[in-house]
């Protein structure tokens, strides 16, 4: 990373802001980027400045803000910003701004910057559903993507007024996650999963003891969410079966199914598997559950508690492997701790052989690893014997490595994706 001339040596991000009501969310995107060590230069449109003033962007970024090409002319910002940036992010990208970018119009500083940028460009749309679905917008998006521009899938939800639908700006945390991914891996979001249905499970199941207590685990669901997010932005239709990830905002462009227990997750995954091209079991499924659940809260009392009888939960991954169709790809996860007998990778190899899935992601857990943290590392094992180390990085980076491997693997099976 070279960084902009304003802050050499720091990853340099140009944050473009379009003139839509979602411009206020750009302030949180800016805050998160600067707090994570990036030098950010905000380039709003004149319309954006009617929603958020320049002083706000300047205070948060520590850098001057301008919208026109006739300000600070001696430094030639309409060329310099695009030339020196490591990444250009536009959030929100309105229908008008997307149209200008697609057709090379350059009538302000932001559109000039888009023409001169030779780094990754991430456009994050925000507009009403009718505008997003209009043939002109769809054609402009397709044209930009064909040139290598990353046009993110918008979220669904509340728009302006009483309207709801697809076209909502994704949450700032998700935008920054995608930005971090592109800074680390500029080629991480190709549209190579279009027409494919992906099912991802995420989070930790909870097995109730009584109305208050449960048996569970420390999985936060972040890795499953990252896998779903990256797949959606690479063009897949994604069904995310999420167990207890209530503190996470569902990724944009994903169909969410919430579950609680292992049995509920099992039912939901099998229901979605019928049309799936890829099944990714990233959820941490409890191995055991209580034989019975008490309908009232168990009181402490004066006596020692009765032992809790447990029974084994179904092996959902093994069931999916046994029921898979020709061409369907099944991916498992193994959260392991080594011991005196063997190491993490050795246990992962044994699990891959035992389960019979096509791919297995192996993570070392414990002491701030994998669970309840933002980053991850591990190995990707294939049934063919290949072993790919995944270096430490964001969970989105790990997800991109996994999808890099999976996307062509199904084609090698000789069976077309169902779409």
UniProtKB/TrEMBL annotation:
The gene is coaBC. Catalyzes two steps in the biosynthesis of coenzyme A. In the first step cysteine is conjugated to 4'-phosphopantothenate to form 4-phosphopantothenoylcysteine, in the latter compound is decarboxylated to form 4'-phosphopantotheine. This is Coenzyme A biosynthesis bifunctional protein CoaBC. It catalyses: N-[(R)-4-phosphopantothenoyl]-L-cysteine + H(+) = (R)-4'-phosphopantetheine + CO2; (R)-4'-phosphopantothenate + L-cysteine + CTP = N-[(R)-4-phosphopantothenoyl]-L-cysteine + CMP + diphosphate + H(+). Residues 13-178 form the Flavoprotein domain. It comes from the Bacteria. Its EC number is 4.1.1.36, 6.3.2.5. Pathway: Cofactor biosynthesis; coenzyme A biosynthesis; CoA from (R)-pantothenate: step 2/5; Cofactor biosynthesis; coenzyme A biosynthesis; CoA from (R)-pantothenate: step 3/5. Residues 1-197 are annotated as: Phosphopantothenoylcysteine decarboxylase. Signal peptide: none annotated. GO terms for molecular function: phosphopantothenate--cysteine ligase activity; phosphopantothenoylcysteine decarboxylase activity. In the C-terminal section; belongs to the PPC synthetase family. Keywords: Decarboxylase, Flavoprotein, FMN, Ligase, Lyase, Magnesium, Metal-binding, Multifunctional enzyme.
């Amino acid at each position: 990373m070279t960084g902009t001339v304003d802050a050499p040596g720091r990853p340099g991000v140009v944050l473009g802001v379009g003139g839509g009501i979602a411009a206020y969310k750009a302030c949180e995107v800016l805050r998160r980027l600067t707090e994570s060590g990036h030098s950010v230069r905000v380039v709003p449109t004149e319309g954006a400045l009617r929603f958020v003033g320049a002083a706000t962007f300047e205070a948060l970024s520590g850098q001057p803000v301008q919208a026109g090409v006739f300000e600070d002319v001696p430094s030639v910002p309409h060329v310099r910003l695009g030339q020196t940036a490591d990444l250009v992010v536009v959030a929100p990208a309105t229908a008008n701004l997307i149209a200008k970018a697609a057709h090379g119009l350059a009538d302000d500083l932001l559109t000039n910057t888009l023409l001169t940028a030779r780094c990754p460009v991430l456009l994050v749309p925000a507009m009403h559903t009718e505008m997003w679905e209009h043939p002109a917008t769809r054609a402009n998006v397709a044209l930009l993507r064909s040139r290598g521009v990353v046009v993110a899938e918008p979220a669904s939800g509340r728009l302006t007024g009483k309207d709801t639908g697809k076209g909502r700006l994704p949450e700032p945390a998700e935008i920054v996650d995608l930005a971090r991914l592109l800074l680390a891996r500029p080629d991480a979001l190709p549209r190579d999963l279009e027409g494919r249905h992906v099912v991802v499970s995420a989070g930790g199941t909870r097995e109730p003891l009584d109305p208050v207590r449960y048996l569970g685990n420390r999985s936060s669901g972040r890795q499953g969410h990252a896998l779903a997010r990256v797949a959606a932005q690479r063009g897949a239709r994604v069904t995310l079966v999420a167990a207890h990830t209530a503190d996470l905002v569902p990724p944009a462009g994903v169909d969410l199914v919430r579950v609680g227990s292992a049995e509920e997750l099992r039912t939901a995954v099998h229901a979605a598997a019928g049309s799936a091209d890829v099944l990714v079991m990233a959820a941490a499924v409890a191995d055991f559950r209580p034989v019975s659940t008490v309908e009232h809260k168990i009181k402490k009392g004066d006596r020692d508690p009765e032992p809790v009888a447990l029974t084994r939960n179904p092996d959902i991954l093994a069931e999916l492997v046994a029921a898979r169709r020709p061409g369907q790809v099944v991916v498992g996860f193994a959260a392991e701790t080594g011991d005196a007998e063997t190491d993490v990778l050795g246990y992962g190899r044994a699990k891959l052989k035992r389960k019979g899935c096509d791919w297995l992601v192996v993570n070392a857990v414990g002491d701030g690893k994998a669970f309840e943290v933002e980053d991850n590392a591990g190995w990707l094992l294939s049934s063919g014997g290949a072993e790919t180390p995944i270096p430490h990085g964001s969970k989105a980076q790990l997800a991109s490595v996994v999808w890099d491997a999976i996307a062509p693997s199904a084609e090698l099976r000789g069976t077309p994706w169902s779409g």
